[in-house]
């Protein structure tokens, strides 16, 4: 694989020497095997242009800058076709992702009720959020953390294990099991709640109740989705059930891509159990996919919100048992029309996502140099 | 027949003990995963007396179309005919698949193969947004859409979908693996960038393109967000949204469970079909991509 990337090597080497933290992360994720190969190649050769430029005489700067600008413009013009290619996506990207995120940040410092124009109020939204918003502090935040801690890592480990188990099967069977695992994630939106409601319905007609009653595990039907103490568990199970999505497929493909001779070589070197194989061979050689899977797991976990409302059929959920941060945003944004405050909550959620991603990057990025 | 059975049995013998145990385990697990889905198929065809029988039955005994009729009857009362919602959804999803794949592939190709000034910045931005869910910033998105004046138009459905960072990301990663020599050879033969893209890059990336097509279809077919927020006129809304309004109050209401199951089927089955059609290609090619 890395041999194919060699034509790019000289140039990329130059660019990668100016590693700042953001670049390191980028290559961490970008690292399919080719990029990983590049990064490794450059680690050994970190010398060069960045130190060279720092040594330049200060008085030559303006002239140099002008010349550099001219060169940049010329290079940009030479690549005009490239810019043409990326334009359609980039326009949509800017309009529907970049601007909304920036606007959310801007709005989070204002009072905005969608009728009057936004009024700047500084940090007040955030202060209120972390000190006085009892609904947020007592329900939305703990619920989200509990939900995310179980569904995120749980779903992630499950996805890896399932993908690994599927790969252990004979090749012609794999496809069918992969399909079986992936299918639930297709029941998006309302289909999901409709599929599960009859299963968890609170009377004895509900399937779960019926089965548990019959085997004598419970005496009275349980209110799986309307009892505040049970709703969260129901949400977690249903979300886990449907979490074998894109991340799972990526890990499956990653597992299939681990060259067989790695295992053979490791066996000769004395690796005995399959567990050792997973730890020393499989995971290190599919790190890019592991990281991708982690990012997907984090994003899907934090953006889940409607599930509690759909399952319980009440908004807000009974005693706020299934109240997640996303519900809190919707509550303020679309019911109370406190858009500024809602934006502040969404900025908080974005930060939460970012920190979690950083954490997973630490997990899978730190071993990159070994 | 006997020969076939025998052959199958011998295949079973070819597996080692670990694989046999594993096969059993995976079958049990698959049944658990698919249970709710098999169940919803059955539920959609159950007559009333089977829907509310105790103990509840799993498989339908006398399949009827009563639930389907009920759904049609409900939709007949609405102001806009159901066909219109269906048309909207099919139209939007079809266009979305085309536009999303086209835009993603067009953007991914220079990111992977041209070192234009700023390509790292663009890619870093895409990676960064991969970590965010656009659902989180619904309110500013609404403001943008209304400012652009595309409320109540098909653009309002389509354009937000086109900003799918994961599509660009996956395609770019896939395109990285195309040998540069292949592209160079074509350029020497006189092909311009667009021809290279269309004749070489896209055919080589077919599996990745298929994957993006699946993702695009999934996100547009089940999309209720754009209908709920950006569409004021009833006749511009999507089928998924319409079904969600029908079934919103059903959560604690058993009366229309059958019809709801039918609605869920209509939403779910196209997704499944598209995935099954394209999945074979994706997984098969992904397995081969390791050897290259």
Automatic annotation (TrEMBL), chain A:
Pfam family, one: BPD_transp_1
Highest taxon of source: Bacteria
InterPro entries referenced in this protein's UniProt entry, alphabetically: MetI-like, MetI-like_sf
UniProt keyword annotations, A-Z: Cell membrane, Membrane, Transmembrane, Transmembrane helix, Transport
Residue ranges of domain ABC transmembrane type-1 in the record: 141-360
Membrane spanning stretches: 81-109, 147-167, 179-199, 230-258, 278-302, 339-357
Membrane topology: Multi-pass membrane protein
Subcellular location per the Swiss-Prot or TrEMBL entry: Cell membrane
Family membership noted in the UniProt record: Belongs to the binding-protein-dependent transport system permease family.
Protein name according to UniProt: ABC transmembrane type-1 domain-containing protein
Organism from which the protein derives: Paenibacillus plantiphilus
From TrEMBL, chain B:
Keyword Aminoacyl-tRNA synthetase applies: no
InterPro entries in UniProt: MetI-like, MetI-like_sf
Membrane topology according to the record: Multi-pass membrane protein
Domain ABC transmembrane type-1, chain residue ranges per copy: 86-278
Transmembrane segments: 21-41, 85-109, 121-142, 154-175, 196-217, 254-278
Predominant subcellular localization, coarse grouping: membrane
Compartments, record wording: Cell membrane
Name of a matching Pfam family: BPD_transp_1
Domain of life according to the entry: Bacteria
Keywords: Cell membrane, Membrane, Transmembrane, Transmembrane helix, Transport
SUPFAM superfamilies in the cross-refs: MetI-like (SSF161098)
Family: Belongs to the binding-protein-dependent transport system permease family.
Protein name: L-arabinose transport system permease protein AraQ
